[in-house]
Amino acid sequence: MTSRLLYYNPNLIAASGNHGLADVELFSRLFAVIDRTVSLVDRTHTIRLPIAVHSLFPLPEPRPFTSTFEELCDLRAAELLRRADELGATLFVFWSGGIDSTLALVSLLKHATSAQAANMVILLSQESINEYPKFYREHILGKLRVDSAVMFPSLLGGHHLVVNGEHNDQLFGSDMVGKLIVRFGEPVMHQPYSRDTFFLFFDEHVHDRETTNFYLDEFERLAAAAPVSIATNFQFLWWINFSMKWQSVFIRTLSYVPPRRAARITRDYIETNYAPFYCTEDFQRWSLANLDSKIKATWRTYKWPCKDIIYRFTKDADYRDNKIKRGSLYNLLLQQPSYNFIDEAMNFRREIDIRDYYQPDNSFAPAERIAVGKRPTALPLREELAVAQ
Amino acid sequence: MLVHSALLDFNTHVVLAISPRVAAIELLSECMADTLHAACVHHPNYVHSSFFAALDADEWPRLTWDLRERKFAETPAEMLTDEIRDRSRLAAGKLDVIDKMTDSLNIARYKVRTGIAMQEIVYLAKRTQALKFKESQYDDDLMDDCQLVVQYADHANVSLRQAADEILLKAKFDEEILVKTELLRLRYFGKVKEASSVDQLPPIYTEFLRDCCVNARV
Question: How far apart (Å, rounded) are the C-alpha atoms in residues A77 and A277?
C-alpha cells in the first residue's frame, strides 16, 4: 500500500518538476485560490487528492450540543492544567496578543491555582507585546514566567506540555473571508451562497474558466457532504477551512522541529505533550451547532463570542470592539527551517519523490472527471502517469 | 568610484569575479580552491574609470590582474582555457547567490537594528546591568550600578525587578533572531561553498528562499 502523508508543503507539490502528472498539476493550480501554505486534507473524504494523505481528525459524530463557548474554554483549560500537573510538566503557552491565544491564556488564568500559574511559561515575542500591550502590562509582566517564543522549535519533542491558540480560525471562519470582504464588501458574507460570486473570486486568481468551474464543483461536493446546511458565502468558506485545513493547522507547528528532536515527535507525543487549545471534538461540535455565532455584520465582529469572554476578564472594551484578526504567527515562523513532509509513520522529510505518494484514484484525474460527467481536462496524460500507476 | 574587489585564479591571476561587495569576494576566496582576493582593484589606476564594473560576468576572465602594477591586462588567449571559464562561471554563480542570500539575511536582521549610533552598546549595557541585578536576587543596593535598569523602570513605571526581567526578555528576542538567521547562514553559505558546479546553485537558492522567506505556514 502506498505510504500516506499527514502533512505536505504545497509549494513542493506544486513545483514544476511534478507537472508531468496532469492531475498533480491540476491540483497544484488550486493553490492559486487556497494559500500555498495550507496542506489540504479533506476530513469528509469527498475530494480525493492525487497524493495519498491520511486524516488524523475525522469529523466528530453529530449530537445535540448546548454548551456555550465559554464553558468549553473553561473545561479545556481545566483539563490542560490538570494534565500538566499529572505529567509533572511545565505548561508552555504561546501568546501572540491575538484573539485566539489571548482567550486560551485568559481561560487558563481563570482556572489556575497559584501553583499552576507558577508552572506556566508564556512564550511571546516583541510582536506579541506590540499586538496587545495592555494585556501584557496588566496580566503578564511581573505576574507570569515569560520566555521568548522565537526559538520554540527547541521546545518541541520535550517533556513539557505545549499549548497554542491553533484551530480557532477553523471553528469560526476563514482568513479568506477577509479577502472576500475586500473584494465584494461586507454584506456579501451573509448573502446566500452564490456560485457566480465565487466564480469571480476564484477565477481572478486561476485565470481559467474551466478549471475554476472544476474547483467550484469540487467545493460544492464538499459542502454537500457537510452535516449542516451550508447556506451563505461565509459558511461556504468556513466549511472549506473547517473540513480541509484542520490537520494542516495541527501539524504545521511540529514541522519546525529541529532534526535532532524529530524522532521524539511520535503519535504518543502529539496526544500527550502537544495541545492546540481549540483542538477538541466538543469545540468542533460547538462550531457545527452555532453557525450564526461566528461573526455579525462587520469584520470587526469576527469571533465576537471570544472577544466577549476576554472582555469579561480584562474589562478592555477597546479590544473587544476594535480588535481585528491578523496573522500572528508569520514573524515567528519566518527564517525557521522546517520539514516539508510528515508521513503517517511520523517520518519527517525535507524532500520526497512524489511518485512514492502518488494516488492515481483521485478527483483531479481526467478519467475521474469524465466518469462523473465533467469536461475532460485539456492537460495531456504523460508517460509518468502510466509509470506511477 | 565604489571600492571593488576581484577574485583571481591563484596561479595565473586571471580574474574570476569582480564585485563591489568585498565581503562576498572574501567569502568566495574561502570557498573556491586556488583563488586569491585582490582588494581595492580600483586603486590607483581606475579611480575615475569603472570599465570593469560594467563588464558582463562572462567577460571577467578576459582580464588578468597585474599585482605589481595594480592594473588589468588582457588575458593571453592560451590562458583563457575552458577550465578557467568554468571556474569563472562557478564564481559568478556563487557570487550572485551569496549576494542575494546576504541581502535576505540582512533584511531579516533589520528587526535587531535601530539605526541609532551606539545603540547596540546601550542594549548590551542594559542587558549586563539587568543580569547583574537579577543574579543578585534583585538587591536594591545595586541600584547605583544599574542606572539603565532604574531609568527603564522609571520610564515604564514598573518595579526594578519587572524592568530587569523585561530588559532581559527583550534582549533574548534580539538574540534569538540572530540565532535563527545564523542557522540559515551556516546552512546555506555552507552549501554554496560546497557547490562544485553552477547547476547546483539554483536549487540551493530555492531552498534558502523557502526557509528564509516563504516557510511561514500561516
Answer: 8
How would you classify the pairing of strands B71-74 and B63-66?
antiparallel
Sequence-separated (6 or more) residues with CB below 8 Å from residue A201: A179, A180, A183, A184
Residue A227 backbone phi and psi in degrees, to 5: -75, -5
**How far apart (Å, rounded) are the C-alpha atoms in residues A104 and A279?**
12
Q: Cell digits for A335?
A: 527564517
Q: Quick one: chain B helix, strand, coil %, rounded to 5?
A: 65, 10, 25
Shortest CB distance from A336 goes to which of B166, B170, B180?
A: B180
| Nearest Cα to Cα of residue A361 among A348, A351, A371, A373 | A371
Q: How far apart are the first and last CA of chain B?
A: 45
CB contact at 8 A, B149 and B129:
yes
Starting from the edge strand earliest in sequence, which strands make up the sheet with B35-38, in order?
A: B15-19, B5-9, B35-38
Q: B43-62: per-residue pLDDT in tens?
A: 999 988 779 999 999 999 99
How many residues would you count in chain A?
Answer: 389
The three-point CA angle A162-A60-A251 to 5° equals 35
Q: Which is nearest to A165 in space by CA: A236, A42, A253, A56?
A: A253
State how far residue A333 is from chain B, nearest Cα, in angstroms: 5
The partner residue sitting opposite B173, judged by closest CB among A126, A334, A335, is A126
Retrieve residue A238's grid coordinates: 468556513
Contact A153, A256 (CB under 8 A): yes
> What are the boundaries of each domain within chain A?
5-55+172-246+338-388, 69-166+253-327
First to last CA, chain A: 12
Predicted model pTM: 0.88
Residues A69-166+253-327, CATH architecture: 3-Layer(aba) Sandwich (3.40)
Mutate to test the interface with B, among A122, A123, A148 (most CBs of B within 10 A): A148
Per-10-residue mean pLDDT, chain A, length 389:
86 81 92 93 97 96 91 98 98 96 98 98 95 96 94 94 97 93 96 98 96 97 97 98 97 95 97 98 97 94 97 96 75 86 96 90 79 41 32
> Are B171 and B126 contacting, i.e. CB atoms less than 8 angstroms apart?
yes
Rg (alpha carbons) of chain A, rounded to whole number: 21
One-letter amino acid of B38: A
CB A244 within 8 A of CB A40: yes
AA letter at B212:
C
Residue B81, classed as helix, strand or coil, is: coil
DSSP state of A273: T
**Residue A43 and residue A246 in contact, taking contact as beta carbons nearer than 8 Å:** yes
Among A325, A333, A336, residue whose Cα is nearest residue A97: A325
Surface-to-core class of residue B158, CB atoms within 10 Å of its CB (0-12 exposed, 13-18 middle, 19+ buried): middle
- For residue B110, what are the contacts with CB-CB under 8 A and spacing of at least 6? none
ipTM of the complex: 0.80
Paired residues of A5 in beta bridges: A53, A343
B108:A336 CB<8 A: no
